[in-house]
TrEMBL record:
Keyword Transferase: no
The protein's name in its UniProt record: lytic cellulose monooxygenase (C4-dehydrogenating)
UniProt keyword annotations, A-Z: Carbohydrate metabolism, Cellulose degradation, Copper, Disulfide bond, Hydrolase, Metal-binding, Monooxygenase, Oxidoreductase, Polysaccharide degradation, Signal
Catalytic activity: [(1->4)-beta-D-glucosyl]n+m + reduced acceptor + O2 = 4-dehydro-beta-D-glucosyl-[(1->4)-beta-D-glucosyl]n-1 + [(1->4)-beta-D-glucosyl]m + acceptor + H2O
One Pfam family linked to the record: AA9
Lineage of origin: Eukaryota, Fungi, Dikarya, Basidiomycota, Agaricomycotina
GO biological process entries: cellulose catabolic process
Similarity-based family: Belongs to the polysaccharide monooxygenase AA9 family.
One GO MF term attached to the UniProt entry: metal ion binding
Key word Kinase present: no
């Protein structure tokens, strides 16, 4: 007998899951937590109050995530440092979404530690953006326990910085307000002898840089799934000079396998399920999923 209830349950469960940054790794040093809504400020990443996305490009939570609270620690980094972000569900499950860009911004906290800095109304510059290659979104790799890896600009001036890694999930973006924003803020102290600073034209506010009708935010990603063209929202990636500029160019992604990911058999099952669900989603009307 055909179980007609199973498909809606599978799709509803898939799209209901969300997530957060569980771990940040800087030049091989791991920093875990805090967990969602834990009440903890320990660590270098600002705690968020829910794994749910930020909805609406003018939402004040777009800065660092829902109810973000400053962490008490700051991590050391240098120009050219490798920083990876492990995104998971709040329960530790795999990241659930596979369409949409990942974008990285930074802001300078001035002379004070970023542990004491309020980023409300601050100005950010973009150091990286990744979309899709050969029809596959870089975000999809997160579903198998892969961490997104970013490299700080090679000529970044020393100072106190917040690095903001953002996922924009576009599976419901066919309707205005349907895009899901997942921002996460981590506190750094950058050393070295770099001299690169952004120009005024590189700086944007978050919220402020996006509109709900931007072509990279209001988009039906399922109508042209094989086309690698995508218009990233926000400013261009900054050029700070030196031996290199930003960590990556448009559409190129470097992803790092997290050492505690599940074994090969389990990951293979996840990929099969993800691929199956993705095919299902492309054929469905998402209006009943919006939240």
């Amino acid at each position: 007998m055909k179980a007609s209830f199973s498909l809606p349950f599978l799709v509803a469960s898939y799209v209901a899951a969300h997530g957060y940054v569980q771990k940040v790794t800087i030049d091989g040093t791991e920093y875990t937590g805090p967990a969602v809504d834990s009440g903890s400020t320990d660590g270098i990443t600002r705690e968020v109050s829910t794994q749910d996305p930020v909805k609406g490009a003018t939402n004040s939570n777009l800065t660092c995530g829902p109810g973000a609270i400053a962490a008490i620690q700051v991590a050391d980094a240098n120009p050219g440092s490798s920083i990876s972000f492990l995104w998971t569900g709040a329960s530790g499950s795999a990241w659930p979404h596979n369409v949409g860009p990942m974008i990285t911004y930074m802001t300078n906290c001035g002379d004070q530690s970023c542990a004491d800095y309020d980023p409300t109304g601050t100005e950010w510059f973009k150091i990286e953006e990744v979309g899709k290659t050969d029809g596959t979104w870089a975000q999809a790799a997160l579903m198998s326990g892969t961490a997104a890896e970013v490299t700080l600009p090679s000529n970044l001036a020393a100072g106190n910085y917040i690095i903001r890694h953002e996922i924009i999930a576009l599976h419901n973006a066919q309707a205005e307000g349907g895009a899901e924003f997942y921002p996460s803020c981590t506190q750094l102290k950058v050393g070295g002898s770099g001299t690169g600073t952004p120009s005024d034209s590189d700086l944007v506010k978050l919220p402020g840089a996006y509109s709900d009708t931007d072509p990279g935010i209001l988009i039906d990603v399922y109508t042209d799934s094989q086309n690698d063209s995508y218009t990233f929202p926000g400013p261009a990636v900054v050029d700070l000079g030196g031996d290199g500029t930003s960590s990556s160019s448009r559409g190129i992604c470097r992803l790092k396998k997290h050492p505690t990911a599940n074994d090969t058999a389990t990951l293979a099952k996840r990929k099969i399920v993800a691929s199956h669900v993705s095919r299902i989603l492309r054929g469905l009307d998402f209006s009943f999923h919006r939240h």
